[in-house]
Amino acid sequence: AARGHDGVVTCLLHDAGAIYSGSSDEKIICWDFATHKALYCMTGHEGAIVSLASNSSYVASSSADLTVRLWTKHTALVGDDSRVGQQVRVVYGHVKSVLS
What we know:
The chain is mostly beta strands. It is 0% helix and 47% strand. The chain contains no helices and eight strands. A four-stranded antiparallel beta sheet has the order 1-2-3-4, with no helix packed on it. Strands 5-6-7-8 form a four-stranded antiparallel beta sheet, with no helix packed on it. A hairpin with a 5-residue loop joins strand 3 (27-32) and strand 4. The protein is globular. The chain starts with 8 loop residues before the first strand and ends in a 9-residue tail after the last strand.
């Protein structure tokens, strides 16, 4: 299981029994809503996480590193925990921080 953040929590997302937290430490952590335990950590950004959003399959994150990233979601991969929280796409091209 992942441990907590090393920086300030900058955004939260409640989704399907989980809470996702983004931080100035460049990490996104998925927390179990019922047990309050960290389930996994998503890393790859090179700047503070600014916002989080989701659909039925993915979590999207934006960052001060000028990127938007898509991650596999815990509920989308029932029976395949090895791919949970993996980065699947990076969107480049912004010239300033992506705030929303």
